[in-house]
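Quick one, tokens below. Sequence please?
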């Protein structure tokens, strides 16, 4: 049985395997069955019906818990948003959710939907610790949830999690962290006292842009039971192939993140000196406002960077059209490098610059990635 003392790179490989009996497969089987044979009310965890639970989820749930250092198995969902919706369904009417103004846009939309139940949504600059703490302490706010994303998507703001968690708890709020960008290799929010971690497994954890999947993790048995109930009733369950593919992708997480993080930092440094680039943002650059905080709190700086080319939104669109290797596409965290002008969507926060391109660095050779960006920048410059 793997123990939490193992390093994350090892855990990603060894957890969620069948027992080592002679003749046993090294990979878990995919079970395709919507229902299970049973008489009367079966005890405990004996499967009954696949919406309520199936053994095909368990190896992935075990592996995710190992990586996030969660005491309880993870809960996989049909998408990151299904996991986020289940967590937001726990918010009591008349309370407030304090959330980054640059949280993932669909998470913000889902939070705002709670306003019809008298929930207040208080948007904050999650990097501004004093402002977040003030919102939590405001007696008019009555926060029940502090939502954290760090780095934020796409502004890459870094939250001071060790300072925010006790402040939220003192105010009677639980702390939920969307850890999609950092991955559990970059930070493990539960070890800082966060109550729930959510993931878009679609991104780095699965890592190959071939599945949509989500997960929630907690150490708290009460929260675990509630989220599990939300999954069973809401029905946002993972398909067996998706769960299996995500686990297969997870095996190489540390190699992929190691490579893409190193390339992202190298590209950010080079782009910052490029004559056709107006601005570059990446937590690994000393010019990033929370660079020191990221250096202290994270292992690595993540594989996302943003750049603003010359020529405004039209310049950014031209750059996205001029690249040959980089894929112009939404989403992120795949083995292939991709880029996107976020404000092409009307739903993106108006405080995100019109000309901002979000770059998700994959695992290709960094020199090829650089050469492609450089030729595209020169062409539009
Ligand atoms: C993509 C993403 C989500 C949503 O996940 P889906 O799997 O697309 O539902 C949530 N948070 C962040 C930070 C994301 O990047």
């Amino acid at each position: 049985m793997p123990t939490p003392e193992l390093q994350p790179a090892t855990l990603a490989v060894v957890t969620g395997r069948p027992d080592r009996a002679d003749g046993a497969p090294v990979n878990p089987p995919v079970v395709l069955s919507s229902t299970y044979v049973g008489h009367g009310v079966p005890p405990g965890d004996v499967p009954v019906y696949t919406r309520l639970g199936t053994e095909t989820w368990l190896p992935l749930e075990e592996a995710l818990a190992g990586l996030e250092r969660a005491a309880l198995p993870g809960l996989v969902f049909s998408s990151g948003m299904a996991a986020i919706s289940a967590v937001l369904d726990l918010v009591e009417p008349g309370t407030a959710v304090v959330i980054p103004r640059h949280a993932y846009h669909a998470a913000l939309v889902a939070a705002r939907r709670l306003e019809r139940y008298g929930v207040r949504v208080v948007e904050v600059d999650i990097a501004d610790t004093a402002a977040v703490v003030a919102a939590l302490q405001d007696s008019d706010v009555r926060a029940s949830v502090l939502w954290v994303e760090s780095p934020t998507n796409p502004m890459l703001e870094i939250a001071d999690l060790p300072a925010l968690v006790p402040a939220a708890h003192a105010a009677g709020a639980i702390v939920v962290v969307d850890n999609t960008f950092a991955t559990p290799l970059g930070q493990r929010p539960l070890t800082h006292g966060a109550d729930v971690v959510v993931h878009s497994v679609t991104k780095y954890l699965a890592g190959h842009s071939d599945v949509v999947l989500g997960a929630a993790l907690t150490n708290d048995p009460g929260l675990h039971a509630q989220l599990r109930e939300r999954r069973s009733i809401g029905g946002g369950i993972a398909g067996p192939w998706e769960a299996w593919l995500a686990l297969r992708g997870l095996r190489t997480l540390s190699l992929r993140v190691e490579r893409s993080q190193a390339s992202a930092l190298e590209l950010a440094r080079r782009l910052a000196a490029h004559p056709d680039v107006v601005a570059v943002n990446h937590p690994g650059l000393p010019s990033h406002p929370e660079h020191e905080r990221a250096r202290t709190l994270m292992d690595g700086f993540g594989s996302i960077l943003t750049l603003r080319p010359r020529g405004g939104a039209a310049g950014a669109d031209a750059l996205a059209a001029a690249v040959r290797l980089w894929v112009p596409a939404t989403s992120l965290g795949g083995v292939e490098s991709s880029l996107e002008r976020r404000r092409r969507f009307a739903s993106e926060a108006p405080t995100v610059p019109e000309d901002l391109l979000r770059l998700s660095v994959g695992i290709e050779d960094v020199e090829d990635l650089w050469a492609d960006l450089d030729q595209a920048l020169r062409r539009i410059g």
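The chain has 13 helices and twelve strands. The chain has two domains: 8-250, 254-380.
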